[in-house]
Specification:
The complex is a heterodimer. By secondary structure, chain A is mainly α. Chain A contains 11 helices and no strands. Chain B is built from 5 helices and 2 strands, in the order H-H-H-E-E-H-H. The chains are: A mainly alpha, B mainly alpha.
């Protein structure tokens, strides 16, 4: 189980390099890129912040989009609380590493002690690798002048594709994905940057409302 | 403070609140079926919209350029279950080749 946790952590760390490069490409400094990984520490939300700011969106739309994307971490917290039973400072630390991967590895274990250990090994492991690789990716990208020359302009949406793909499990989800793409492109020429993205939440509400 | 700094700090604060709230509130507050269904769809719509905008938008204009080709290659690689680094590198190489040679 430790091996699962560590190998998950290492693989996810490689996304960190893509994130660091994306952040610098979007106009973030190396410090700002690294702070997002240290403080925000939730991949999809981080990519959203740099994607929206890089496209010229407002800070408010970047924060709102990242917050909505991060809400699933609250649900992971609900799942983890009865397993970890932490209070005070330990709860603050456990909360910070409550993400997709730590929750997933933990819930795969079949006894209480392993679930606890799986959460911490994976959470801390991802934190270390994610931050290390963010720095390396940011450093690498800042050495590159024009991002298009190295294909970084396509690497960023490709990284997003890698985040969406595993979530598409049924027909409804594919349809909603297609509608979100259409709505975002339709709104792009009409609204300020960032608005086309956050507006698609309406589709999630409409299609999630009824069973 | 620049907009980027506001985004970095603001999004970090709300991200932590999201995580901490989950550990601290009673389960029945959040565990509602309708809410769960909407919440499953939220990352799908937001991330799909981000893919679309980052692939086809140039400021407020829609364009088809080397990025679209790179993303198309990424989708093919994902379909064939390629690991993440291969997907990203495949997209980057495709996009760079078109940008530099055409």
């Amino acid at each position: 189980m430790d091996r699962t946790g560590i190998s998950v952590a290492f693989t996810v760390g490689l996304y960190g390099a893509a994130f660091g490069a994306a952040a610098v490409t979007a106009g973030f400094s190396i410090l700002q890129s690294c702070l997002l990984s240290i403080l925000l520490f939730s991949g999809a939300s981080q990519f959203a912040v740099v994607g929206i700011m890089g496209a010229g969106g407002s800070a408010l739309s970047a924060i709102a989009t990242a917050t909505l994307l991060g809400f699933r971490n609250a649900l992971y917290g609900l799942q983890m609380a009865p397993i970890l039973k932490v209070t005070g400072l330990n709860r603050l630390l456990a909360a910070q590493i409550t993400i997709d991967e730590s929750t997933a590895v933990s819930t795969l274990q079949d006894n209480e002690a392993d679930r606890k250990r799986g959460f911490y090994v994976t959470g801390v492991g991802v934190y270390v690798f994610w931050n290390l690789f963010t720095f390396l990716g940011a450093l690498g990208a800042s050495a590159i002048g024009n991002p298009s020359v190295w294909g970084l302009d396509a690497a960023v949406p490709a990284a997003f594709c890698g985040l969406v793909w595993p979530r598409l499990k049924n027909k409804l989800q594919f349809i909603v994905c297609g509608l979100a793409i259409a709505l975002a492109l339709l709104l792009t020429p009409l609204t300020p940057a960032g608005v086309p993205i956050i507006t698609t939440v309406l589709l999630a509400v409409i299609f999630g409302w009824k069973k | 403070m620049t907009p980027i700094w506001i985004a970095v700090i603001g999004a970090s604060v709300t991200a932590f609140l999201n995580k901490y709230v989950g550990h601290s509130v009673p389960e029945r507050w959040l565990n509602k079926p309708r809410f769960m269904r909407i919440n499953t769809l939220v990352p799908i719509v937001l991330l799909s919209a981000l893919v679309a905008v980052q692939s086809f938008a140039d400021k407020k204009e829609l364009v088809i350029d080397q990025r679209a080709a790179g993303v198309a290659v990424a989708l093919v690689l994902l379909k064939y279950k390629a690991p993440f680094p291969i997907v990203v590198i495949g997209a980057a190489i495709t996009s760079a080749a078109i940008y530099n040679w055409f």
